[in-house]
Amino acid sequence: MDTRTRALDLARHYLQTLGFNGFSFQTVADALGIRKASLHYYFASKEDLGMALIQDYRTHYENWARKNASLPALEKLELLFVMFNKIATDEHKICPVGVLTADFNSLSKPLKKKILEFHLGQRAWLIRTFKEGIEQKTLRKDLDIEATAELFLSSIQGGLLMARLRNDPKVFKDLCKNLLKNISAP
Amino acid sequence: MDTRTRALDLARHYLQTLGFNGFSFQTVADALGIRKASLHYYFASKEDLGMALIQDYRTHYENWARKNASLPALEKLELLFVMFNKIATDEHKICPVGVLTADFNSLSKPLKKKILEFHLGQRAWLIRTFKEGIEQKTLRKDLDIEATAELFLSSIQGGLLMARLRNDPKVFKDLCKNLLKNISAP
DNA sequence: TGCTACCTACCTACCGATAGGTAGATAATA
DNA sequence: TATTATCTACCTATCGGTAGGTAGGTAGCA
Hints:
Two copies of one chain form a homodimer. The longest helix of chain A is centred in the middle third of the chain and has 27 residues, at 109-135. In chain A, helix 7 (109-135) crosses helix 8 (145-165). Chain A is 75% helix and 0% strand. The termini of chain A are far apart. The first copy, chain A, is built from nine helices and no strands. The first copy, chain A, has helices at residues 3-18, 25-32, 36-42, 46-67, 73-89, 96-102, 109-135, 145-165, 170-183. By secondary structure, chain A is an all-alpha fold. The A-B interface holds A 17-19, 21-22, 92, 94, 97-99, 101-106, 115-116, 119, 144, 147, 150-151, 153-159, 161-162, 164-166, 171, 174-175, 178-179, 182 and B 17-19, 21-22, 92, 94, 97-99, 101-106, 115-116, 119, 144, 147, 150-151, 153-159, 161-162, 164-166, 171, 174-175, 178-179, 182. The structure holds a DNA duplex.
């Protein structure tokens, strides 16, 4: 694996465990085994690193969505929860979007825009998938699609925080189970 | 208002807008109009300030709960949302517990414990209030009380994040409205 | 009343560590 | 030889924190 990719993976790890203001170039450089100045070769500034992190995460998510595009809607939603559950069980991490939103006011405008775009993309995916699910008769046909999307997004972000706080990934898993139960067709 | 109280108010403001690692003693001292060293007269360390902040927030919440203890359960829940909605509409702030959970891994053990205690207290309050609401027949009698408490707590935390991200307090308000609708007796 | 002792609420001036970032040299590779 | 990837060495600003001082108030006591 090349240095840039390794750097991004490490930076994402620190982002998800310590927050954007909780790690430094030094932190990442030490973990990589190179000098801080060398890291600036790949990322001109921390802002630059932030942009690369969110872009990287987005690409990862879009590949995941493409891969599962042809699955039934209910299965897609289950797999979405599996993806977030992996985050919760991996050292009580939280979602990069959630972290960056917590540190939102110390970020630059372009970075803020990038985070919002990702969030809205995920929201649009949920809405599309809910519609599919209703057509496939696996989801309740009286579902308020937009409200449900907001509920899913907010409780995923909050649920990851809670799993960390309570030191218990089961908190998140149960939450997901109930979210799905409540929208499934009777 | 005495200096310590003013300092706490300012620190809470910065906590809720910039995160625990996003502000410094200098930030607060400047806003107060005193020297950083003088702030150390009131709070020996940043850890100490963190403890005072969470204690202060807890006292505030417990006074609120006491004041409304005799109201009907549904009204209590409505007022809880009003309280959090005030946070969302005040410069896109988020809940101090949520912020501190995002920065959780850079905090000391005693501070972590204090945050967890507050969260569990709020969870217990929700569970008690749901039980009251069922007895008062304003909430659905088939409600899964524990699961609903987790859902409320997580979507409140996540909802505040989302309202900030989307630059739109309406996001939070609508979320609350739907949460209440889903648990109300038919 | 006058003196001593102590307290509160700040101050100046500093500490070592770390933050983000840069200039310029150097080693390896194509 | 040009490019890529890394280095040493440094910069300024800020971090959390401390040492020591001081103006002004208060309490005890002869």
